[in-house]
Specification:
It is a single chain. The chain is of the alpha+beta class and about 170 residues long. About 20% of the residues lie in helices and about 25% in strands. It contains three helices and eight strands. The longest helix is centred in the first third of the chain and has 16 residues. The chain is globular, with a radius of gyration of 15 Å. Bound molecules: zinc ion. Zinc ion binds next to helix 2.
Length: about 170
């Protein structure tokens, strides 16, 4: 089944998403499954609800591309950030073929309820931390390409980490 993603420059991506209410209803649980499928179908490592047309504060992530253990984040809050940050290139399933150069914290601690509403506090590093910050930007209506000041350079992005990378655009260089 093909799931169409909301793509830049659609203004819907600029919406600030609303908190998800608990307990999760059937519709929200189906939406989570739908988001996981959309992420895997598009070879992404993360996907926010706004990208499939829902203005809700949640996203799915699988930085290892396990295709088995997607993580679900609902109403997430960053409660701690590392002092250190790193600048790298990111792509977005909602902006195919584009890249943004973004400075992100290398470590963040996140507080979020699990699907049953129990609070989880967990620390994430490196690519997972970058992906979470990318997805949390989506919740605020912000895109990784908003950070890019200069012109896109093909040379610059050669050996970089991609978030939500799309194999088709990644292999075209
Ligand atoms: Zn994105």
């Amino acid at each position: 089944m093909y799931i169409e993603l909301v793509k830049y420059p659609d203004v819907f991506l600029r919406c600030v998403s609303k908190p998800v209410s608990f307990p999760l209803d059937d519709k929200t649980q189906r939406l989570i499954k739908w988001m996981e499928r959309a992420m895997y179908n598009n070879y992404g490592i993360g996907l926010a609800a706004i990208q499939v047309g829902y203005q809700l504060r949640m996203f799915v992530m699988d930085v290892n591309r396990s295709f088995e253990h997607p993580q679900v984040f609902i109403n997430p809050e960053i409660i701690k950030k590392s002092k250190e940050s790193i600048t790298d290139f990111e792509g977005c399933l909602s902006a195919p073929g584009k890249r943004g150069e973004v400075k992100r914290y290398i470590r963040i601690t996140l507080k979020y309820p699990d699907e049953k509403g129990e609070e989880i506090v967990k620390t994430f590093y490196n690519l997972a931390a970058r992906c979470i910050q990318h997805e949390m930007d989506h919740l605020e209506g912000k895109l990784c390409i908003d950070y890019e000041k200069g012109n896109y350079s093909r040379d610059k992005h050669k050996s970089q980490t991609m978030v939500e990378s799309d194999f088709r655009t990644k292999s075209d260089s």
